[in-house]
């Protein structure tokens, strides 16, 4: 039976509700000094603000070793009524110090992922519900191939979905060639993030043909091809017959981007993106992207 693995336990996909399919409540990286998402009270306020505009669930893509604060997630979920899905996995090498990476390379990375998916994240009892990995800019380096091989092994052992950060939205076909081609992960178990950052309609259709999920996530920055190109990209995919493979997310990565700090934050997805996108593709598809689709993308017949 298919279930979504939240920090409070497994639920039926239909119980997930309106879902931000890619975001962060907590995140820490040496690439973002002084901008850490590391404040529990701010995270609670952000979840409450999301709930107030109709949000019901958040998939946190923060992986192993990046300050995901898994121990705090169950209490936050109970206090706010927002379901939370937690990630295992590993980001690009630049987000870790050399010593931490050396320790991980000395062990079995897939074993770590499987343990966090099935037994729980160490000392917390919280089980992860997805595996987060990352590609590079228009390609895959040795680190990406190592982490994706481990993610594929963990997927085959558990059934867990593999969510992929695409650097500036690039490298989607390289990722799919590796994960779905060489490593045998079914397309519908792969979620590609940041397609909005590289609005190439031909590439989008080629990626969607694999059966993977395409996530449009992150509010616009000036002169970036994000919000202002996203509606036409979604419309093109829907018209090509791929409307049932689409997800929406916010991808809040620094403290100043939280709504409670004056930024767009989690509520922006429902306050602004939802209405803007509905004008382009209709409210019915948008509601499925926010409700039905995340349950299908992250729902697993856990092994």
Automatic annotation (TrEMBL):
- Mind telling me what this protein is named? Phospho-furanose lactonase
* Gene Ontology MF terms: 1,4-lactonase activity
- Under which EC number(s) is this enzyme classified? 3.1.1.25
Q: What class of enzyme is it?
A: hydrolase
Q: Sites of the modification N6-carboxylysine? A: 132
Per the record, the similarity remark reads: Belongs to the metallo-dependent hydrolases superfamily. Phosphotriesterase family.
- Matches recorded under SUPFAM superfamilies: Metallo-dependent hydrolases (SSF51556)
**Organism from which the protein derives:** Streptomyces cyanogenus
Please provide an example of a Pfam family that matches this protein in its UniProt record. PTE
Asked if the Swiss-Prot or TrEMBL record annotates the protein with the keyword Hydrolase, the reply is: yes
């Amino acid at each position: 039976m298919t279930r979504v693995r939240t920090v409070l336990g497994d639920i039926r996909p239909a119980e997930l509700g309106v879902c931000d399919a890619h975001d962060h409540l907590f995140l820490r990286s040496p690439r973002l000094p002084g901008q850490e998402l590391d404040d529990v009270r701010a995270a609670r306020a952000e979840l409450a603000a999301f709930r107030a505009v109709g949000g019901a669930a958040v998939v946190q893509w923060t992986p192993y070793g990046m300050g995901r604060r898994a121990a705090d997630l169950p209490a936050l979920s109970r206090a706010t009524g927002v379901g939370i899905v937690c990630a295992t996995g590993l980001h690009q090498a630049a987000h870790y110090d050399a010593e931490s990476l050396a320790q991980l390379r000395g062990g079995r990375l897939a074993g770590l992922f499987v343990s966090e998916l099935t037994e729980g994240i160490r000392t917390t009892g919280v089980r992860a519900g997805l595996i987060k990995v990352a590609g590079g800019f228009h390609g895959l380096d040795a680190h990406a191939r190592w982490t994706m091989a481990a993610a594929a092994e963990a997927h085959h052992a558990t059934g867990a979905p593999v969510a992929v950060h695409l650097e500036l939205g690039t490298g989607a076909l390289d990722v799919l060639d590796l994960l779905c081609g060489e490593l045998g992960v079914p397309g519908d178990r792969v979620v590609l993030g940041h397609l909005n950052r590289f609005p190439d309609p031909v590439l989008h259709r080629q990626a969607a043909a694999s059966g993977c999920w395409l996530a449009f996530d992150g509010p616009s920055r000036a002169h970036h091809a994000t919000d202002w190109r996203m509606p036409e990209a979604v419309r093109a995919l829907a018209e090509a017959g791929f409307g049932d493979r689409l997800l929406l997310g916010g991808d809040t990565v620094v403290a100043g981007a939280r709504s409670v700090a004056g930024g767009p934050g989690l509520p922006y997805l429902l306050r602004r993106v939802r209405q803007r996108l509905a004008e382009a593709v209709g409210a019915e598809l948008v509601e499925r992207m926010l409700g039905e689709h995340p349950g299908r993308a992250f729902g697993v017949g856990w092994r």
